[in-house]
Amino acid sequence: MPDMSQDQITRLRAIMARLRDPEHGCPWDVEQTFATIAPYTIEEAYEVADAIEREAWDELKGELGDLLFQSVFHARMAEEAGLFDFDDVARSIADKMVARHPHVFGDESNAKSAEQQTRDWEAVKAAERAAKARGGVLDDVALGLPALMRAEKLQKRAARVGFDWPEIGMVVDKIAEEARELAEARATLPQEKIEEELGDLLFVVANLARHLKVDPEVALRAANAKFVRRFHFIEAALAERGRTPDQSDLDEMDALWTEAKTQGL
């Protein structure tokens, strides 16, 4: 085992190297690739967000450790392939943070509002994208993002070059239009067309969130949590009556839902 006196990042890297050792390591860890580990990386990031949303501070340390382990895992595989190592990863993000904060690490004044600093940040990122010779405005919006988040980012990027509705009322009108088209598709068109129309509606809803300066992922997570709270109330109320939801009906459960709302759930 790695020396317990090592600093913990060094220790973690040594553990990862041992796990990946072809002869003495863990067979599961050895056979993994970037592609097979990527879903776990995404899952761990969501578990960090979940712990924060629940204010489960006792769990957050462990969840952050799990996410850090994902970076160490990917860096180890990259080192084995001769691509880069963990030091390169750390150096890359450190250099980026220094370059993107000239008002902290450089000569620029830090007497700026958060809004101005955000604009400056976007300008630096735009220059970095140009230096990478990306082909189009949307080309580096990551494909692996959750669909709702990616929709918002695509629209935000297009808006920077003027492709955007100038007022929020036009977005609301478009939502109504897409909803009508979905209703028509439901009645007359095949399933793949219904899916397309629903996608169009969700895409415009994401655009509305952007115009309202609301993170659609955050808003939907809050709505999910609210639904869970209220449905738990329904289950508890029915249990007091000696029944379960499948032994109830919509009218009774809807009345309990309204009661949950009146109680602020």
From TrEMBL:
Domain NTP pyrophosphohydrolase MazG-like: 32-105, 173-230
Gene3D superfamilies assigned: MazG-like
Pfam families associated with the record: MazG
Protein name: Nucleoside triphosphate pyrophosphohydrolase
Spans through the membrane: none
Top-level taxon of origin: Bacteria
Lineage: Bacteria, Pseudomonadati, Pseudomonadota, Alphaproteobacteria, Rhodobacterales
Gene name, Swiss-Prot/TrEMBL: mazG
